[in-house]
Amino acid sequence: RKILGFMPQQQGIYPNFTLERFLYYMAALKGMKKADAKPQIEKLINLVNLQDSRGKRLGGFSGGMKQRALIAQAMLGEPKVIILDEPTAGLDPKERIRIRNLVAQIAFDKIVIIATHVVSDIEFIAKEVLLMKKGEIIDSGAPHILCEKIDGKVFEITADESMLGEISAKYKVGNISKDEKNIYVRVISEQPPSFECRPCKPDLEDLYLYYFDQGASQ
């Protein structure tokens, strides 16, 4: 346990604790002496950019601030491996970017394991991705290598809005966008769709849909 740091998905933190008291409490649970914990806590509060909130109660923190506080406690004791469970779940886009950049910074000198369904958050920071389905690892590798496995299976269909139901019934649908004239539907298909379309470069969201979406597919 001494080499592990863990951030849980659920923000079950003590609302009446200030950030500073919370970190000292967690340090004590980890068996750290107060003299050793003090410089680490100072460093971590600055790392997660909560200097101005150190004396505020956690109950008044936003979701993103709580996530950053949980990341800070996970790093107490200078663990070699940090496990983050859904670190960006429920956050607004600004906080998601902040957390994503923080994780990338931490990962320069530590092993960081992230469990997440928000695949876009790991696309540019993960060195290796493991895909798990029903408790079994079904594939693994660098993001770009995994995406290459579905090259030629991702398309963007251009169609009239009235055709969306038909498209959704035939294909695994990713993103949908529209303009004044058409809708643009990103789909996963083993064969080129029977609609006007163009091939697209696969990303991790496409890969996730390919393996885990249980809807229509051709």
Can you list the strand order of the major beta sheet?
A: 7-8-6-9
Provide the CATH top-level class of the largest domain. Answer: Alpha Beta
**Rg (C-alpha, Å):** 22 Å
| Quaternary state of the chains | single chain
Shape: elongated
- Approximately how much helix is present in the residues? 25-40%
The chain-level mean pLDDT equals: 91
Give the name of the CATH architecture of the largest domain: 3-Layer(aba) Sandwich
Distance between the termini: 47 Å
List the helices and strands and how they pair.
Blueprint: E1 4-7, H1 19-29, H2 34-47, H3 63-74, E2 81-85, H4 93-106, E3 111-115, E4 129-133, E5 136-141, H5 143-148, E6 154-159, H6 164-170, E7 172-178, E8 183-188, E9 197-199, H7 204-212
Helix pairs in contact: 1-2
List keywords for this structure.
218 residues; alpha/beta; Rossmann fold; 2 domains; four-stranded antiparallel sheet; three-stranded parallel sheet; 7 helices; 33% helix; 22% strand
